[in-house]
Amino acid sequence: MKFWTPILIFALSDTEVIYTRTIETILERYIGPTELSWEVKKKQMGKIAPDLAELIIEEYNLPLKPREYTAQARIIQENLFPHCEMMPGAERLIRHLKANNIPIALATSSAAETFRMKSTYHRDFFKLFDHHIYGSSDPELKRGKPHPDIFLTCASRFPDPPAPEKCLVFEDAPNGVKAALSAGMQVVMVPDPRMDEESRSEATLSLDSLLEFRPELFGLPPFDD
Length: 225
Description:
By secondary structure, the protein is of the alpha/beta class. It folds into two domains: about 5-15 and about 85-220, 3-Layer(aba) Sandwich (Rossmann fold), CATH 3.40.50.1000; about 15-80, DNA polymerase, domain 1, CATH 1.10.150.240. Helices cover about 40% and strands about 10% of the residues. α3 crosses α4 (about 65-80). Its EC number is 3.1.3.96. GO terms for molecular function: metal ion binding; pseudouridine 5'-phosphatase activity.
């Protein structure tokens, strides 16, 4: 069998806890101690920075402009992101794909500067990807998820750009799943345990952990172990 399916990877690092802590820290400054509701959290996941800021400001009626919110969030995250860990199973999967010469790319809604913070202790690992695309700072991208732009642009930057139906996306957020499907791609969802069944069911495949992923289900080389 010839294995050649490109893989577009998102959510390799477990950062949603940090985004929640950031939002709740800012909310406390303006409206007192507030727990981020799950409904707002679902809307927030996967959004580019400007859209995230607008969402939180609108949902909680904060007296801030989006750029002011983003500036505050960045200061908080500078101390938190360098210590984030990768999603369990991510490194095993990426090294396996790389060893089998499968084209892989990273498509993240983060800005390039934010991603550098997230990857502080994983620099060598992220060099395994053919290319990276940063949704919050790439000049070619005008719309964030759930629009398909980030995945279509990511696919277009492979030396031999694949058709969307030949691409497989890994996601953790409903907005990302919608974006991948809108792009005409297959998508494996590894969601938060609180995610409802309706949101999970939209994905091509939903897993509780990336450790459960079986590459051969998508025509990829199986793990050796």
